[in-house]
Amino acid sequence: MSSSVFRKTRWASARSCFSDQRCLATHATEAKTQSHLLTAGVVLNRAPILTTAPTPFERAFYDYQRRIYRALQNPFPDYFYFKDGSVLEGRFKAEERAREKEAFGKGFGEAVDDSTSILTDDDAEREQEQPKLRVTKADKLKDYKSLDRRGPRNLYLLIKGKPTDKYAWRFPQGATVRKDELLHEAAQRLLHEQCGDAMNTWIVGRRPIGLLEFNYPTNAENDHVGEKVFFMKGHIFAGQVKPKDDIADFAWLTKEEIEQWVDKEYWNGVKDILSDW
Prior knowledge:
The chain has nine helices and eight strands. The chain is of the alpha+beta class. Helix 2 (about 55-70) packs across helix 4 (about 85-105) and helix 4 packs across helix 5 (about 120-125).
């Protein structure tokens, strides 16, 4: 082979190699720009603090069972356990009258003479435990920031981010998972960074309960085309949100209220991870 032919062959081989490297670099750049950023989010829940109100049928059934129980039970020998005319005897009789009225209706047992007791009616009323109100002041004022509202329902924390965010109202999200950091650790860090450290919270488990994938606006200056948000479930036990500077507002909402507050696209992505009640 002549030297000129050898030089041409080697030059063609070099061009081919350079072209392949440039092609690979182009594909690598395209793959980088087309990827999604992996982030963590938190669905922070306040569990119900009241039992649900019974239906009319359930209430009638419980009343019927209570009347049967009171009618068939053996009388309690209070003369054996309490001294005649003592405070404990008076308290017991007052509680018995309350139970009888609850079982058989108002007016039952009102003719019973209990003049021997030194326990006054005010003392007996004070001993009665008052149930927690189902409609609180926060419900009447529509205070969406209060954790006392909607006692029988699950409440979820929604925050309002920066005006440049794609979704105005959303769950706490956007924490980039750092190297050697687990999802639940990133979720806990996210709560502190966005909602402050004045809450006693617990991240439930180490597996996400949902995934939300979305793209950034076309004019956004980012190294990625969008985000993949892995939502972790959390519970709040005490405290309240103390939003940081980049959080404009927050609210504790039920599932139905969340649908009215968030973007439709966002709602379709998160509705299945929320409790219906």
